[in-house]
Design a protein that fits this description.
- There is one protein chain.
- The protein is mainly α.
- The chain has one domain (6-29, 38-123).
- It has helices spanning 6-24, 39-60, 79-99, 104-123.
- The longest helix has 22 residues, at 39-60.
Length: 126
């Protein structure tokens, strides 16, 4: 991809993967976009979100020096494996956004709204 809009590229790549997976494994996921108000849609959203959380836990397993009470230092850290797990998590979270028919523009505007809220909280000593 040669775009300067990397967020759009990420959404496009993830969408392409989801549609390819649906074509090759028709029963692996529901048709997207899903109906988020439906029971099945909400079950799917919950499942995909939890898969993303599981991947974040896998990423956290690579962090060995987080215990405040640990005296010894473990200098070994595999950045590539850590980032791979974080990317796996993001892939599930992007799949969730795509499943509910959220595109990069809607996501970016939601991000901007939330960024303003958290800065306002910080500045107002929330």
């Amino acid at each position: 991809m040669d775009s300067t809009d990397r967020l759009a590229d990420i959404f496009a790549m993830r969408s392409a993967f989801l549609y390819a997976m649906k074509e090759k494994l028709p029963h692996a996921q529901p048709d997207i976009p899903i109906t988020i108000a439906s029971k099945e849609g909400q079950q799917y959203c919950r499942d995909i979100a939890l898969r993303g959380v599981e991947e974040m836990f896998e990423a956290l397993q690579h962090l060995k020096n987080w215990k405040t009470h640990r005296v010894t230092d473990i200098p070994d850290f595999n950045r590539e494996e850590f980032l791979e797990e974080v990317v796996d998590a993001f892939n599930y979270f992007f799949a969730l956004l795509i499943a509910v028919d959220c595109d990069e523009d809607e996501f970016f505007h939601a991000f901007l709204r939330k960024d303003k809220i958290i800065h306002d909280r910080l500045n107002s000593k929330y």
